[in-house]
What does this fold into?
Amino acid sequence: MIYLELIFAFLRVGCFSFGGAYGAIPLIRDVVLSYGWLDDETLTYMIAVSESTPGPIMVNLATYIGSSQAGFLGAVLATLAVISPAFIIILLIMAALKALLKNKYVQAVLSGLTPCIIGIILATGVYLTISNCFSFANGISINIRTVIITVILTAVMYGSKTVMKRKLSSIMLIAISACLGIVMYGI
It folds into this structure.
């Protein structure tokens, strides 16, 4: 039964995720929490780990969740389920790509999806930032360490644009956040 649940859950994630992995995080969150596979805090940590490890976030999360729920076979099934829709869709699109991209209606749909995806990614980022910096369980409490790390990373990111006149790479931001995490939380 767990194998079918993993397959159908991650097929749904794979079929209805637009805009890349960041756009898929809310859908993954809904699926994982509805099945009770992870709690919200563990999922947040897994998103961070998936971001800092090689490979797409969706695949990393599917593999981890599948493995934690049903071992190696669960990891394989969840991973295949999450990548199969995109793989099949890409194969179909490649067959009709020239004609499809010239169609004004397809261009209109893709242009219309862009602001939606930006909004989903922004909402996910704001949600993750607020849920990690503040706890609303018993009133409002502030996780001062997380707030300090967030402020420092934000200052470094925007400061690098001002000082170096170029954007700091994502890899460098991940390395800086790892160092800050070690300093703030200890090993």
Observations:
- The helical segments are 2-16, 21-35, 40-52, 57-102, 104-133, 144-163, 170-185.
